[in-house]
């Protein structure tokens, strides 16, 4: 459903993202790995519209979305999390998620209706919070959350938007070992229901291996390989450039 | 021809004045991230300091070395006030931008009122060497010496600030400190000292602008600083926050535009053009002429 | 990096042996409140003068808060009680920059590189007066930083930023390093590299490390302090902790099998 | 003590014939015009003393002054006026700034109280309404005085240099009617009041080669403006006329001071009247706006004497009244309440900080009379 | 500070927290009723007001304070609630003032038509200029709005066609106005009008910030990029807030011109915008009552300090003190500076701290 064709982003002479061809099928879970600075986050930025590609096309369900601003792409069903948590710091955790739900429900411009009275939004928001295990933190200000909690809130924001294509940028970074399995389960459940596709950058190989149907490897902005986990892990270049010796 | 030269040179003189006011503002505003509405106060202190010294301080006077001494005194007074303001009022408020606004606005109101309470609301004649009132004939244009003096001073100040930023670590410390003060401290640097220094330099530049502005206008009055401030802000923003070189370019553009439009256009159009210029520059290049592109 | 020694062969001093030495850092009854929240409630532990002491615990227990309290970076709204000593010196009342100049290096959790400055400028900022900065050491570890000297740090990738953050501290000789989750967001290969770096650093400087990656912990740590709900839940030998499934299960919520993946 | 009352309660001016007469003085004690305000109030007190022969009373009734600072802000002045009127004040005087005068005048008319405007120079106060009078000069009188410098205007070329805004507009318009009406060709150069660099305007004026330059400029940038005119050789090439401001501004003219022909509302020594002696005894050196305060006090006393508590009677008493003021003979014209008064030509001599003004000529109130306008309200 | 003296001291027999909680939602209503019937009271508060509460002078002062309370609350919709730092808000207020004044005085329109036209015009102006200015963010946005406002100020000062009266201002021609709005005895009606305006603004701002849109605005304040990625167009929401705030400001202008009876150019100045910012910060940005309190207090001080400066109490002080203290702006500026250190977070931060104090002073009663 999501496809990039020769997607390229240059700053001056340097190609940060270099002619990337990527196809994401409905229901598919594609892991993205690659050394730090390979251009994974940049690729996400291009797909979600935070950066404008210098060359190439991005299509969603066959529609060219390359010229749309971020919010239009989001409305078409593209959702993402950020590598550096970006939550609404001065709103409570629950308000954060409600906002995301509301955005998903059509971005009401209502000025006079009371937002708090909207039961459906509240219920959807609490469900999302529950799923990431943050329900007990609902009233805390998002800005005061500990790092790992913010990561969970990021995912809750994503869930609330019920996107069809989800881009997860290192969701596990900084999450305590205890919570990893829980979060993995949450992410796993994302694709469980029909038709959703996930693109996930992650450096925790065990998580990637557990979740991904296919793994794409980025290196110096280009796609080095995109194949089944087994093949990718066996690839000597990947071994050498990315995995190194295991601890 | 003579008119064009005259307009260009007097325009540069005006630009120099704007730059002198803007340079300190740009340092404090662009580097220390403090929207300093009290900058006009430093200007006023510099001007009144010079005025007072020339009349009361032994050795100081309106002429020759005495005048230099008086200006030095005014600049010292402005610097001192700036340091005190930073230490007492601003220091507890870094990263609390909004409260800074309240304090600096309060300070500018109270400070100007204090000058007025002390020396009255009326403009006072400013002590200055006679040659600053005369003109120099350049290619048939009678160019006021006061303006030329401003141009020279502005060039010197520009050089000095650039040298400071380039050859010392302070520029770096301050730029880093604006982003994340805590982290600078965590690298073992006393960031507070660096910020006090910026205020001191900003205050000194402002006080110098006040003193030379006094020469230029021929008078001092309590509100003089504040009235120049709005153009200085415009210059800083057109030039790009924190870029002293940008401020210099912007000052030249603003000074020349005002001067030429005021001559060839109808009255008041000069100001509108400058303000329009500001809007256009920002809409096309929100970071200003010399500002760097901010990336996420 | 040369062949790495087996975990067991690293000739660690036993815990009892280490305890005989004066601890480099001792934290006693440290309490932190931030805007009404009692985040740390009387935390006490010591850091041995050699090797890595690791601070463990779930998200939000207060690990970062502990490190920040030690270097004096508690937010203004916060209130710190208790004592923290490095050698004979009490730390809590002293300003951060003094502590750092006195040899306390701190690598913050969220990297905190100066986004608007170039890589080279970030490093230059970390130079301390009167000492010669060990650029060769840093560049040997992270050649990337040498190559990217003119790039704005804000445009570095996450991992590159982490390298810069560690590089900044290694530029100087320190008496104690506080390192908060250095491998977060790093590619596996770099994680290994960082772990090796820290291992080597720890040979000369003691390190207090906060780390979620238990593989790294297993490799580096000799002593462990586990926090839970703002209090110390366990202190002792790190390997003892990681090998005892019952302990890891109860303290960290993971079986030891997951520890040694 | 809680009490209830009607929301429209206002105190009524006591009909008691021995009760004090309340007079409200709303003027600038702080702000940019504070020094004008100070002269005004000194003049007023001296005038009150003079007109009541030192008793401060009219008949048995004491004149009770309430001073309120408007800081030059019309909104504050209006609040103060409403407050005073609410407390039963029937006479309000003051208004240092034109903006204040223009906005207080309608309040006076709406509430039928007497308003005697002060130093505010705007022509628009004249004929504003039945209840509004003025105790100072108006821009038009300045311009008529300026005209006296060129004798026969026919065929002469006159340039007005004025700041943007109402003050400049009024002066330009006045020059066009007064001097232009007498046969001169009048053109104008206008500059924003906020301008700091005057060379372009000076060159424009120079290029126009006028026989007479009339400058209407108020504010702190005036010295820079004069310096530019001087430097570009305007002052030495033509007759330049402007209004002489307060004494403390004289030194700021610098070298330009002696090259300018001044029209003057007043300066110490311009007249030698009984009133001026009385005033000088109180304030030692008379300045520009002392006479306005003095005249206001004389008008207040007259109004109370003849009108008692009846404002309409006060108005009748003042209309067509002539009196000897500081400047000389003053007449309140019934048609529009213009205050006809002598004006002066002056010259500055000396240099540096020690200028003295000397009168060249004085014009009578009739000579400088502005054309009568229709009463607006 | 007399105003602070009247803040109720912690009463020893304060009602049980439960009851306070129950009447709390009605407190604004109670306050409103008190303010509505205030003009029927003849209480004198010497030192605080010149005359009894129902005297025209006091009502006029209160009316001005209320207007600015409303204006500040409207500005807070931009600043405190959406995080947009506009330096040109005075323009829309001034458009309201001058628009009404010109239409009534120069064009002779009846008040209701003039008001309607002005408010519509002011709102459209805000929408148009906002549409351009919002292409920038942060300090650039502040400066572009400032630039637009400066153009407005220059146009007013230039006095094109004698329309605005330049620096002298334009007194309002009251001959066509409803009799109830003219004359000192009717000041009370102006007071009620101002109160109605304040109520309107507070109600609108409250409703809007509690609405779905308001929630988005709060999100914009924290992270605009994130809002975009959630599928909402930041630009549209910001424009709505900007236009609404502009419309509220023009409405305030209409009421203000009636109260003051004229327009003067200082209301077009950037200083006025700055004062609005100061009011909001003084009270507490993003809070319901903070900006209102800030606006009221600011205007109160601004007006009353002139009286304070000339009072005997100040005159009798030694010159070193009496000179500065007789400068109203000196006192005002000093108050701002002190406020930052004594009430960080604005005046409204005082309430929780006061209640904290009450609680710690109160002897603990065993729960039953
Ligand atoms: N604005 C920019 N200017 C210059 N270089 C940039 C810019 N943005 C990104 N880069 C460079 O592009 C490369 C890719 O960065 P990106 O953040 O996409 O990496 P990544 O694959 O997400 O890495 P990580 O796993 O560490 O997060 C990096 O080398 C980075 O320094
Ligand atoms: N400035 C603050 N204001 C309020 N609460 C805070 C603040 N800083 C931290 N906290 C709270 O203190 C607790 C501990 O935070 P801390 O960052 O120390 O946790 P941590 O152990 O480092 O977690 P993580 O593993 O996620 O990094 C968290 O619940 C957090 O919400
Ligand atoms: C012509 C001068 C007497 C002008 C005076 N300064 C005024 O504005 O009233
Ligand atoms: Mg990345
Ligand atoms: Mg942490």
From TrEMBL, chain A:
Gene3D superfamilies: P-loop containing nucleotide triphosphate hydrolases. One of its GO terms (molecular function) is ATP hydrolysis activity. Residues 2-245 form the ABC transporter domain. InterPro entries: AAA+_ATPase (IPR003593), ABC_AA/LPS_Transport (IPR051120), ABC_transporter-like_ATP-bd (IPR003439), ABC_transporter-like_CS (IPR017871), BCA_ABC_TP_C (IPR032823), P-loop_NTPase (IPR027417). PANTHER family: ABC TRANSPORTER ATP-BINDING PROTEIN, CONSERVED COMPONENT OF ABC TRANSPORTER FOR NATURAL AMINO ACIDS-RELATED. One of its GO terms (cellular component) is plasma membrane. Keywords: ATP-binding, Nucleotide-binding, Transport. This is Branched-chain amino acid transport system ATP-binding protein. The keyword ATP-binding applies. CDD domains: ABC_Mj1267_LivG_branched (cd03219).
From TrEMBL, chain B:
One of its GO terms (biological process) is amino acid transport. InterPro entries: ABC_transp_permease, BCAA_transport_permease. The keyword NAD does not apply. The chain crosses the membrane at residues 6-27, 34-54, 66-89, 101-121, 146-165, 194-217, 229-256, 263-284. Signal peptide: none annotated. It is a multi-pass membrane protein. One of its GO terms (cellular component) is plasma membrane. Keywords: Amino-acid transport, Cell membrane, Membrane, Transmembrane, Transmembrane helix, Transport. GO terms for molecular function: transmembrane transporter activity. It is found in: Cell membrane. The keyword Transmembrane applies. Belongs to the binding-protein-dependent transport system permease family. LivHM subfamily. This is Branched-chain amino acid ABC transporter permease. It comes from Micromonospora arborensis. The lineage of its organism: Bacteria, Bacillati, Actinomycetota, Actinomycetes, Micromonosporales.
TrEMBL record, chain C:
InterPro entries: AAA+_ATPase, ABC_transporter-like_ATP-bd, ABC_transporter-like_CS, BCAA_Transport_ATP-bd_LivF, P-loop_NTPase. The keyword Transport applies. One of its GO terms (molecular function) is ATP binding. It holds the Pfam family ABC_tran. CDD domains: ABC_TM1139_LivF_branched. It comes from the Bacteria. Belongs to the ABC transporter superfamily. This is Branched-chain amino acid transport system ATP-binding protein. It comes from Micromonospora parathelypteridis. The lineage of its organism: Bacteria, Bacillati, Actinomycetota, Actinomycetes, Micromonosporales.
UniProtKB/TrEMBL annotation, chain E:
It is found in: Cell membrane. Keywords: Cell membrane, Membrane, Transmembrane, Transmembrane helix. The chain crosses the membrane at residues 26-49, 61-78, 90-109, 115-134, 139-157, 177-205, 239-259, 329-351. InterPro entries: ABC_transp_permease (IPR001851), LivM-like (IPR043428). GO terms for molecular function: branched-chain amino acid transmembrane transporter activity. Pfam families: BPD_transp_2. It is a multi-pass membrane protein. This is Branched-chain amino acid transport system permease protein. It comes from Micromonospora parathelypteridis. The lineage of its organism: Bacteria, Bacillati, Actinomycetota, Actinomycetes, Micromonosporales.
């Amino acid at each position: 459903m999501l496809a990039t064709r020769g997607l390229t982003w240059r700053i001056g002479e340097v190609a940060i993202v270099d002619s990337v061809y990527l196809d994401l099928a409905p229901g598919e879970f594609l892991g993205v790995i690659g050394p730090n600075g390979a251009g994974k986050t940049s690729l996400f930025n291009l797909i979600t519209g935070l950066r404008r590609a210098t060359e190439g096309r991005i299509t969603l369900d066959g529609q060219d979305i390359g010229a749309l601003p971020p919010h239009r792409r989001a409305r078409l069903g593209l959702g993402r999390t950020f590598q550096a948590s970006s939550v609404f710091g001065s709103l409570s955790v629950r308000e954060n998620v409600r906002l995301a739900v509301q955005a998903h429900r059509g971005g009401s411009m209502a000025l006079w209706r009371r937002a708090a009275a909207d039961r459906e939004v509240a219920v959807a928001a609490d469900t999302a919070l529950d799923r990431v295990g943050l329900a007990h933190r609902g009233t805390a200000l998002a800005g005061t959350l500990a790092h790992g909690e913010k990561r969970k809130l990021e995912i809750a924001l994503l869930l609330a938007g019920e996107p069809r294509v989800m881009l997860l940028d290192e969701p596990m970074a900084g999450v305590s070992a205890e919570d990893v399995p829980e979060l993995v389960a949450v992410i796993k459940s994302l694709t469980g229901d029909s038709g959703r596709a996930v693109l996930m950058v992650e450096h925790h190989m065990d998580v990637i291996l557990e979740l991904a149907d296919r793994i794409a490897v980025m290196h110096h902005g280009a796609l080095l390989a995109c194949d089944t986990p087994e093949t990718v892990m066996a690839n000597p270049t990947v071994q050498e450039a990315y995995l190194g010796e295991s601890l | 021809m003579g008119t064009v030269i005259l307009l260009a040179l007097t325009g540069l003189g005006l630009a120099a004045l704007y730059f002198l006011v803007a340079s300190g503002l740009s340092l404090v505003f662009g580097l220390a991230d403090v929207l300093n509405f009290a900058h006009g106060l430093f200007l006023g202190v510099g001007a009144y300091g010079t005025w007072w010294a020339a009349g009361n301080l032994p050795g100081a006077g309106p002429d020759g070395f005495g005048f230099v001494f008086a200006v030095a005194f005014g600049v010292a007074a402005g610097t001192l006030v700036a340091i005190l303001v930073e230490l007492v009022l601003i220091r507890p408020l870094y990263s609390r931008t909004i409260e800074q606004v309240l304090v600096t606005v309060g300070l500018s109101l109270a400070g100007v009122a204090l000058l007025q309470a002390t020396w009255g609301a009326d403009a006072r004649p400013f002590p200055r060497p006679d040659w600053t009132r005369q003109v120099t004939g350049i290619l048939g244009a009678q160019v006021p010496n006061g303006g030329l003096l401003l141009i020279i001073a502005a060039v010197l100040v520009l050089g000095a600030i650039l040298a400071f930023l380039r050859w010392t670590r302070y520029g770096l410390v301050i730029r880093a400190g604006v982003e994340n003060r805590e982290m600078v401290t965590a690298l073992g640097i006393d960031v507070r000292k660096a910020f006090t220094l910026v205020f001191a330099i900003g205050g000194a530049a402002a006080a110098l602008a006040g003193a030379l502005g006094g020469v230029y206008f021929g008078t001092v009055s309590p509100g003089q600083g504040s009235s120049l401030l709005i153009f200085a802000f415009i210059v800083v923003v057109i030039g790009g926050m924190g870029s002293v070189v940008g401020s210099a370019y912007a000052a030249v553009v603003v000074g020349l535009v005002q001067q030429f439009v005021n001559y060839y256009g109808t009255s008041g159009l000069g100001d509108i053009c400058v303000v329009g210029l500001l809007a256009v520059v920002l809409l096309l290049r929100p970071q200003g002429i010399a500002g760097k592109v901010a990336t996420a | 990096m040369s062949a790495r020694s087996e975990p067991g062969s690293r000739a660690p001093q036993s815990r009892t042996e280490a305890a005989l030495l004066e601890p480099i850092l001792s934290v006693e009854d440290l309490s932190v409140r931030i805007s009404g929240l009692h985040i740390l409630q009387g935390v006490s532990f010591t850091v041995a003068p050699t090797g890595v002491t690791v601070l463990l615990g779930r998200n939000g227990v207060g690990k970062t808060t502990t490190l920040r309290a030690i270097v004096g970076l508690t937010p203004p709204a916060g209130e710190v009680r208790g004592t923290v000593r490095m050698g004979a010196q009490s730390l809590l009342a002293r300003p951060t920059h003094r502590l750092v100049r006195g040899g306390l290096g701190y690598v913050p959790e969220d990297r905190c590189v100066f986004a608007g400055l170039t890589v080279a400028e970030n490093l230059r900022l970390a130079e301390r007066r009167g000492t010669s900065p060990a650029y060769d050491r840093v560049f040997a570890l992270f050649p990337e930083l040498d190559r990217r000297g003119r790039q704005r740090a804000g445009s570095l990738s996450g991992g590159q930023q982490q390298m810069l953050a560690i590089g900044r501290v290694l530029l100087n000789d320190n008496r104690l390093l506080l390192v908060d989750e250095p491998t977060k967001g790093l590619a596996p290969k770099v994680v290994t590299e960082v772990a090796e770096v820290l291992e080597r650093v720890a040979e000369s400087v003691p390190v207090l490390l906060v780390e979620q990656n238990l593989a790294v912990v297993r490799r580096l740590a000799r002593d462990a302090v586990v926090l839970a709900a703002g209090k110390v839940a366990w202190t002792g030998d790190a390997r003892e902790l990681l090998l005892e499934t019952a302990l890891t299960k109860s303290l960290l919520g993971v079986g030891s099998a997951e520890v040694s993946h | 003590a809680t009490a209830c009352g009607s929301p429209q309660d206002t105190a009524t001016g006591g009909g008691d014939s021995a009760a004090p007469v309340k007079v409200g003085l709303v003027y600038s004690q702080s702000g940019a015009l504070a020094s004008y305000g100070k002269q005004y109030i000194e003049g007023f007190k001296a005038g009150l003393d003079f007109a009541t022969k030192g008793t401060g009373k009219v008949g048995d009734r004491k004149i009770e002054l309430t001073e309120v600072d408007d800081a030059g802000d019309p909104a504050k002045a209006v609040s103060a006026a409403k407050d005073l009127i609410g407390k039963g004040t029937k006479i309000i005087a003051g208004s240092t700034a034109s903006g204040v005068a223009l906005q207080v005048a309608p309040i006076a008319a709406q509430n039928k109280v007497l308003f005697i405007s002060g130093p505010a120079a705007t022509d628009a106060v004249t004929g504003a309404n039945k209840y509004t009078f003025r105790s100072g000069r108006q821009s038009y009188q300045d311009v008529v005085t300026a005209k006296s410098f060129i004798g026969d205007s026919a065929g002469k070329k006159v340039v007005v240099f004025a700041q943007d805004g109402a003050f400049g507009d009024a002066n330009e318009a006045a020059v066009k009617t007064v001097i232009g009406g007498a046969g001169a060709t009048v053109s104008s150069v206008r500059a924003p009041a906020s301008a700091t660099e005057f060379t372009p305007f000076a060159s424009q004026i120079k290029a126009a080669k006028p026989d007479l330059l009339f400058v209407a400029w108020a504010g702190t940038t005036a010295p820079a403006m004069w310096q530019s005119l001087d430097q570009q050789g305007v002052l030495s090439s033509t007759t330049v006329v402007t209004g002489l401001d307060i004494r403390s501004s004289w030194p700021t003219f610098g070298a330009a001071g002696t090259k300018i022909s001044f029209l003057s509302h007043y300066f110490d020594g311009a007249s030698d009247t009984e009133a001026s002696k009385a005033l000088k005894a109180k304030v030692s050196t008379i300045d520009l706006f002392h006479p306005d305060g003095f005249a206001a006090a004389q008008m207040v006393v007259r109004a109370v004497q003849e009108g008692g508590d009846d404002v309409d009677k006060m108005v009748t008493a003042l209309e067509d009244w002539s009196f000897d003021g500081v400047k000389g003979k003053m007449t309140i014209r019934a048609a529009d309440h213009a205050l006809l008064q002598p004006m002066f030509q002056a010259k500055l001599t000396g240099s540096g900080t020690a200028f003295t003004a000397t009168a060249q000529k004085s014009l009578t109130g009739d000579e400088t009379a502005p054309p009568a306008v229709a009463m607006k309200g | 500070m007399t105003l602070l003296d009247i803040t109720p001291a912690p009463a020893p027999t304060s009602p049980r927290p439960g009851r306070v909680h129950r009447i709390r939602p009605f407190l604004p209503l109670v306050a409103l009723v008190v303010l509505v019937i205030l003009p029927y009271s003849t209480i004198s508060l010497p030192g605080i007001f010149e005359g009894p509460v129902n005297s025209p002078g006091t009502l006029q002062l209160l009316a001005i304070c209320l207007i600015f309370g409303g204006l500040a609350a409207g500005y807070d919709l931009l600043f405190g609630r959406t995080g947009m730092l506009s330096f040109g808000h005075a323009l829309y207020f001034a458009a309201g003032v001058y628009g009404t004044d010109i239409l009534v005085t120069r064009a002779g329109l009846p008040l209701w038509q003039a008001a309607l036209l002005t408010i519509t015009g002011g709102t459209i102006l805000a929408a148009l200029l906002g549409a351009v200015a919002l292409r920038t963010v942060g300090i650039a946005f502040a400066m572009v709005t400032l630039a637009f406002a400066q153009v407005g100020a220059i146009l007013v000062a230039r006095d094109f066609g004698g329309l605005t009266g330049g620096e002298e201002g334009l007194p309002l021609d009251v001959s066509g106005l409803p009799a109830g709005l003219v004359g000192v005895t009717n000041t009370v009606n102006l007071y009620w009008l101002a109160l109605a305006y304040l109520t309107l603004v507070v109600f609108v701002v409250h409703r809007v910030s509690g609405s779905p849109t308001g929630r988005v605005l709060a999100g914009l304040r924290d992270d605009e990029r994130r809002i975009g990625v959630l599928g909402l167009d930041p630009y549209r929401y910001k424009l709505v807030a900007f236009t609404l705030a502009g419309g509220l400001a023009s409405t305030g202008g209409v009421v203000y011109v009636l109260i003051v009876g004229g327009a003067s150019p200082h209301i077009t100045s950037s200083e006025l915008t700055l004062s609005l910012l100061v009011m909001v910060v003084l009270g507490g940005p993003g809070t319901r009552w903070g900006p209102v309190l800030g606006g009221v207090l600011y205007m109160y001080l601004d007006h009353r300090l002139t009286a304070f400066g000339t009072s005997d109490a100040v005159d009798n002080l030694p010159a070193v003190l009496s000179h500065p203290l007789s400068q109203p702006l000196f006192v005002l500026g000093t108050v701002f500076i002190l406020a930052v250190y004594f009430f960080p977070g604005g005046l409204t931060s005082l309430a929780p701290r006061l209640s904290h104090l009450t609680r710690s002073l109160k002897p603990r009663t065993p729960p039953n």
